[in-house]
Specification:
This protein is of the alpha+beta class and about 325 residues long. It has helices spanning about 20-30, 55-65, 80-95, 190-195, 200-205, 230-235, 280-285; strands at about 40-50, 70-75, 115-125, 135-140, 145-165, 170-175, 180-185, 210-220, 225-230, 265-275, 295-300, 305-310, 315-320. Pfam families: Serpin (PF00079).
Length: about 325
Amino acid sequence: MLHFNPASGWGNSSQAQPGLQSQLKRVLSDINTSHRDYELHIANGLFAEKVFDLHRNYIECAEKLYNAKVERVDFTNDVEDTRYKIHKWIENETHGKIKSVFQAGSISSSAVMVLVNAVYFKGKWELAFTKNKTVNCHFKSPQCPGKAVAMMHQERKFNFSVIRDPPMQVLELKYNGGISMFIMLPENDPSQIEKRMTFQNLMEWTNPRKMSSQYVEVFLPQFKIEKNYEIKHHLRALGLKDIFDETRADLSGIAPGGRLYVSKMMHKSYIEVTEEGTEATAATGIKIVEKQLPKSRVFRADHPFLFFIRKDDIILFSGKVSCP
């Protein structure tokens, strides 16, 4: 959960920077709005040791502006029951798609706060893949040498571009509802792309002015990713350090007493990609005789690639497929 005002300045924080706060609230509300063509659920939770008397204003701010669940629990005397409560909340918020984040024994009885973010996404393609065109193919990867994967296939017009530095193909696959998946397929190893991965570069690589609608023969494996991360060390690398340090953290805007700090920050994500598309799209697709097709580009994702899912200008999800 992100808050743009210093936590120590807690006085009426829900009224501070009303334009920014209301914009964030609208974004979260839009993301979590149910849609007939896709499922997208984002859940944020803050679980704090009950001996800390959280400021009422902070609780209201977190719940009202960020749709966050704020709950005081008993880490000290019943850590496993607390772990169960956290998991039940996550399961409810993700409609049963994500059931666990913390393994038994992974939360210490000395913990004072746990932050959890859970994301579930499943979408329907605007241009669906046909299931009878899916075949088994070998996926070339050191992580799963010789593995046969279900390779989806279709040939249509897609937004497509070729980047020279670092060398890769970029393909946009649209979901209904204003969401797109961008796939970055390197010539070989995706490490060169990863080394240069920034938000600015992502926007540049998928700049509409540099992509064009072309006939592309697409080979894309079905894949499902369910991953659990402890992201504290990533945030420390970005410079967010003090809130994880018991002696330096200043979260007095959350609770008085000066003893509060963040002990764990976990992220669990789930995404499934299949052939599915909307019924209308499958029924009304334009049939084109093969001999009339212009020469197509070939986008063959039979080796590791990167992807990210974007709704408007918001990146919802990103990942790497090394072994579908």
